[in-house]
Please model this.
Amino acid sequence: MQKLLVQGGYRLNGEINIGGMKNSALPVIYATILVKDECILENIPRVSDIDNSIEILRQMGAYCEFIDTHTLLINTKNLSSEINGFELISKMRASSYLMGTMLARFGKAYLPMPGGCNFGKRPIEQHIKGFEHLGAKCIEDNGFINITTNKKLKSNKITLDKISVGATINIVLASIFLDGLTIIENSAMEPHVDDTIRFLNMCGAKILRCKSRIYIEGVKALHSSRYRIFPDMIESLTYMTFLGICGGDITLVGVKYEHIKYVCDIFKKMNFNIDTYEDEVRARVNEQVEGANIITAPYPLFPTDLHPQFASLLCFSSTGGTIRDDVFPTRFAYAKELEKMGANIERIENSIKIYPSKIHSATLDATDLRAGAALVACALGAQGESIINNVNYIVRGYEDIVGKVTSLGGKIKIIKET
Ligand code: UD1
Model:
């Protein structure tokens, strides 16, 4: 096991590259199952969630190889419909995309129920509702989901009761080869959904988004293609929270500004100076940021995946603020850790109130990926040396966080736990 050692109190200056978006690279990797041929995916982030998904595909018989650092070749021609070994699958939320892809390719799927995670329940009844509307039978049994078909699946209209990224992508995947037109109403509009749709269209699918409605016209087969994953909006925004805490002048290279504009507008109100160029964003913070009140919600509003890092930022703000998480209302495990650093926090149902706090260094435990990033943020602003345990959570989603923070002048290193 490894831990992070962070020496806080240094301004951040310089330029870093933003990697590909983990949360769209994952569904795109699973979507290659439908291509039954070779695909080349560019801008794949080197994080452990991706490695684990590649390993799952390999165990199913796919050929996967990085042909350069961020370019992944996948050939799913010889994929087996039987899965041997459920250990990795049961650990990964993203493996739930095997439900839609296996149903579309093999007409059946038998998998462990996607695991919950440390920030609350992750139900899948909307995924199941979608599969059942297409004619599949879904039975949950002893921690497994068994999806079968006794007749040909049929396109249909599905209205999601709740906006869900996972369910939207899974229903798109399941309906790719169906005769006629499948329509998803109240779909998620996250860039990760549209990245997956763009990839599938590049491979010959016929999918059209009209605001929150998605039309999928079935096709007979997909063909191989080369596709570049969108930049990671959450990685970009996480580094901006680090900047807000430490002050300085950073340029993020390889960013899609439209994906982060909603949050950047909030940052601007908090005293960030933000300039945008073609695929770069320069952000400067010269004085203490002001507070803000936010509510997380599906895209294009404030992302739940930035909630913990934003909480850290508020600790360093002049006026504090509140965060209400309407997507994952119990996503507050990080708060206990921030309190170890002196954060002045009050929990009120599914909200948290954060007062301006005198933050000091401490020994901390990351409880999940974004909570881990929040601890890094706070530790970068604290005087003294902090230790963050459970680095494995952080490397699930932030490629080379140590190298990137170091290149900006932050003091952070990984040490082996003894
Ligand atoms: C969510 C985020 C996504 C983020 C990902 C990783 C949203 C809308 N989604 O996606 O941006 O990248 O976490 O952290 O912000 N739900 C149900 N029933 C279902 C499916 C979902 O009630 O069948 C609920 C969830 O409990 C949650 C909300 O819907 O409250 C959104 O869930 P969903 O978008 O499916 O979660 P992820 O796909 O994991």
Q: What stands out?
A: The mean pLDDT is 96.
